[in-house]
Design a protein that fits this description.
The protein is an alpha/beta fold. It has helices at 20-27, 47-60, 80-91, 106-123, 139-143, 145-149, 162-168, 190-202, 218-231, 241-250, 255-271, 291-306; strands spanning 11-16, 33-37, 67-71, 97-100, 131-136, 155-160, 206-209, 235-238, 282-284, 287-289. It has an 8-stranded parallel beta barrel, surrounded by 6 helices. Strands 9-10 form a two-stranded antiparallel sheet. Helix 2 runs parallel beside helix 3, helix 3 packs parallel to helix 4 (106-123) and helix 11 (255-271) packs across helix 12. The chain starts with 10 loop residues before the first strand and ends in a 14-residue tail after the last helix. Bound molecules: glyoxylic acid and magnesium ion. Magnesium ion binds at residues 40, 101, 137, 161, 163-164.
Length: 320
């Protein structure tokens, strides 16, 4: 994996692969990533047509600036290999990632990696360029997440799939992403989100929060998204155009934090230089900064730069 840490994925738009109309609409939305779905948003009888619609749409283009992903069906179904062979074989040059749902063990990722490598060789694509986005949506998948994250260098993201996860653990709720009624001592998803985040950070992958299904409830979406963003997640799925702006904003650094991070980097670079006295720690205004401050600032600054932010204040070294 070479690019996951620099490609922003604040918003990943889910689009049914069988709907030409929704694919056309997706092209014009300000999202960082789009996935065309052959899995749960595509009925069993629509999957074959869906493959053809996806191939045609990817080859027509119009997704400039967006990560282009196709979600195939999981390995327990009869469809996975055909999904991959058809989509990558016919539109591999216009595709960035394959998303694999319901990953339960490393072999699921390894099987996809092998298939992709053979396809890339057979149709003349650069070997290893197509990434893998892994959905963690079962108890078994979460328990194996450390090995799953390391199963292939193609893995770019670890994605929480709340709907399937709630079913997998038999959570007593049908409202996806919301707290189950009766659980009043914290966030019922905290352990799951933290486990995904730990594996992502340990193995340099992006951690992505899944969908919020109550499309009209923007306040609910905001509350849920702010929780995973606060923990350190890189982005969240969006299902509808009305969700896009809010989620882009929540997963971008605030302007003040971005400016502050850039100023920490400049000030720390100066104070550790010969001109600045080669010091390991220094003051930035009233704040003591050191190597740990630099590491935290790099994260905020990197996310802001990736999102195209520009600084509005510039730190100057003191007069000598
Ligand atoms: C997404 O795939 C989910 O199950 O929530
Ligand atoms: Mg799912």
């Amino acid at each position: 994996m070479t690019s996951s840490s620099v490609r922003p994925r604040r918003t990943t738009l889910a689009v049914p692969g069988s709907s030409q109309k929704m694919i056309d609409k997706a092209r014009g939305l300000s999202v960082d990533a789009v996935f065309l779905d052959l899995e749960d948003a595509c009925a069993p009888t629509a999957k074959e047509d869906g493959r053809r619609t996806i191939v045609k749409s990817l080859n027509e283009g119009g997704f400039e600036g967006k990560i282009r992903t196709v979600r195939v069906n999981d390995w327990t179904t009869p469809w996975t290999y055909r999904d991959v062979v058809e989509v990558v074989g016919e539109a591999g040059a216009n595709l960035d990632c394959i998303m694999l749902p319901k990953v339960q063990e490393p072999s699921h990722v390894q099987a996809l990696d092998l298939l992709l490598t053979q396809l890339e060789k057979s149709v003349g694509l650069e070997v290893g360029r197509i990434g893998i986005e892994v959905q963690i949506e079962t108890a078994k998948g979460l328990l194996a997440i450390d090995a799953i994250a390391q199963a292939s260098p193609r893995v770019e993201t670890l994605i929480f799939g709340p709907a399937d996860f709630m079913a997998s653990i038999q959570m007593k709720s049908l409202v996806v992403g919301e707290q189950p009624l009766g659980y009043d001592v914290g966030d019922a998803y905290h352990h799951i989100l933290m486990s995904i985040l730990m594996a992502a950070r340990a193995h340099d992958k992006q951690a992505i929060d899944g969908p919020y299904l109550a499309i009209k409830d923007l306040a609910g979406l905001e509350a849920v998204a702010k929780r995973s963003a606060a923990l350190g997640f890189d982005g969240k799925w969006v299902l509808h155009p009305t969700q896009v702006e809010l989620i882009n904003e929540i997963f971008s650094p605030a302007q003040d934090d971005f400016d502050h991070a850039e100023n920490i980097l400049d000030a720390y670079a100066w104070c550790t230089s010969e001109n600045g006295g080669a010091r390991g720690a220094a003051m930035l205004g009233d704040e003591m900064i050191d190597e740990a401050s630099r590491k935290m600032a790099i994260v905020i600054s990197g996310k802001g730069r990736a999102a195209g932010m520009e600084r509005t204040s510039v730190w100057q070294p003191p007069e000598q």
